[in-house]
Design goal:
7-stranded mixed β-sheet, 17 helices
């Protein structure tokens, strides 16, 4: 209130046009975008270094005896110390007294020891049937800001801490996942783009054999396609600061694929573009080398996302507990149906004419997941969303905690931050947010593997 007792005018009333014109400044030209991008790139590099070592490289912190015995290896701390004392050849960690600190590589070696020598009823290594392919998990929603990349990154870290070997494929040209994992990507030739280009080029070579037999003109292979034929998907994989997490990164030029793929499809309508990523991973043996492959998709149902969904065994759809995100996610499912039903119908109409068996897309499991959940404000709406999505929804809602926010500001996952920077209870609550998410996803993974194993034994 003013001294006269009257309420002040709202800030959008009484604005002076001449003053407003002066504040606008000179017209903006396209060169200004380049300047803004340059400043942002410099700032992004500086902020990213907050979670990096002084040399600019990310380092994974060490894990204490308390963490190992509580979260990583199911063994009592006293017994853990006795085993290390009796087995001096095992990693001994660093530090004084009872609290030792171990690298994740050392933890993996200790896990192997306990798996061989420990109690038979304990799960020292996670369930993984031999001879079966990796489970591919796509995290997707065409609405941005729903916690998609954060969920994908933490699932990769959770799986790695659990003992799985993980490959993360960043299909979002924004490259946020690549930044979290400390990846370096110079251009589109270090992204998933050459996987798609290589698949199309190989299709063209096969198509040209058919055309030559008919006497038709060949489809030309330009410089891009010729170069893509020389790129193995394995060459795109880079190590991360996690010893058992590898990465195929992304950067801005990956978005070129969204323009190039439809051009290729127009040149050869027989190319099954949705299988390109799957074919690349299969040809390179990635499905045999890794246990879990996580695909972080762009916030759009474009060609990269379609490839990810087609390659996936499990689809996770994060959303916030708001009406707009619920509405958007419903439309996302509608577009999924329209897109994949259309592909099925187009493919099967040709297969029926050729007397071939029909194809259909299927997933081991599809789950929606509520992220950034505030129980005090969003419980009622979350319950409504749960009722509508039913069995397509996880039971756990991913809480937003102060620890999650602070870790994000440091370009780190919560598993990468030192618990000594927090109150112990705060750390336990923050970690539980993603531990419980991983528990539900892991249940889907091992359940799907078990079904595959039964089919293999019975078939």
């Amino acid at each position: 209130m003013t001294s006269t007792g009257k309420a002040p005018l709202p800030p959008y009333l009484g604005l002076d046009p001449q003053d407003a014109a002066a504040r606008i400044g000179e017209p903006i030209h396209t060169a200004r975008f380049a300047k803004a991008a340059s400043f942002a790139a410099r700032g992004r590099e500086e902020l990213a270094k907050n979670g990096h070592a002084p040399d600019g490289q990310k380092r994974l912190r060490k894990f204490s005896t308390w963490e190992i015995c509580r979260y990583l290896i199911p063994v009592a701390p006293a017994h853990f110390r006795r085993v290390l004392k009796a087995q001096p050849d095992l990693p001994q960690g660093t530090g004084e007294g009872n609290s030792k600190w171990f690298t994740l590589q050392e933890v993996m070696a200790l896990r192997d020891h306990f798996a061989e020598e420990g109690a038979a009823h304990r799960e020292y290594r996670p369930y993984r049937p031999e001879g079966l392919d990796a489970k591919v998990i796509a995290v997707a929603n065409f609405k941005g800001g729903v916690g998609k990349t954060s969920t994908c990154a933490h699932l990769a870290m959770s799986a790695a801490l659990d003992g799985y070997k993980v490959l993360v494929v960043d299909l979002d040209s924004q490259g946020s996942m690549t930044s979290i994992m400390g990846g370096q990507v110079a251009d589109e030739w270090q992204t998933a783009f050459p996987i798609l280009a290589r698949d199309y080029a190989r299709h063209v070579l096969q198509e040209n054999e058919v055309r030559a037999a008919r006497g038709d003109a060949a489809i030309a292979l330009d410089e891009t396609l010729t170069e893509a034929l020389e790129v193995s998907p394995r060459n795109l994989v880079q190590k991360t600061h996690w010893p058992n997490v590898d990465l195929i990164g992304a950067q801005l030029n990956l978005y070129w694929a969204e323009f190039q793929v439809p051009v290729w499809r127009m040149q050869s309508r027989g190319w099954p573009l949705w299988d390109a990523l799957t074919n690349g991973m299969e040809d390179a043996g990635l499905l045999q080398e890794y246990d879990i492959i996580l695909l972080d998709t762009p916030p759009a149902l474009g060609y990269l996302t379609i490839n990810a969904l087609s390659a996936a065994d499990i689809l996770l759809v994060p959303l916030g507990a708001s009406f707009l995100e619920f509405d958007s996610t419903g439309r996302f499912f509608d577009m999924l149906y329209s897109t994949f039903a259309s592909i099925e119908e187009g493919e099967n109409s040709q297969r029926r004419r050729a007397g071939l068996p029909e194809v259909r897309f299927e997933w081991d499991a599809v789950r929606t997941l509520i992220t950034r959940f505030d129980a005090a404000q969003q419980t009622d709406l979350a319950n409504v969303i749960q009722a509508y999505f039913g069995d397509l929804m996880t039971t756990f809602r991913q809480d937003m905690t102060a620890m999650v926010g602070q870790a994000g500001e440091q370009v780190n996952g919560i598993y990468e931050v030192d618990y000594r920077d927090f109150n112990r209870d705060t750390y336990v609550r923050g970690r539980e947010t993603f531990d419980r998410t991983w528990a539900e996803v892991k249940e889907l993974v091992i359940g799907a593997w078990w079904k595959d194993e039964q089919e293999r034994q019975n078939g």
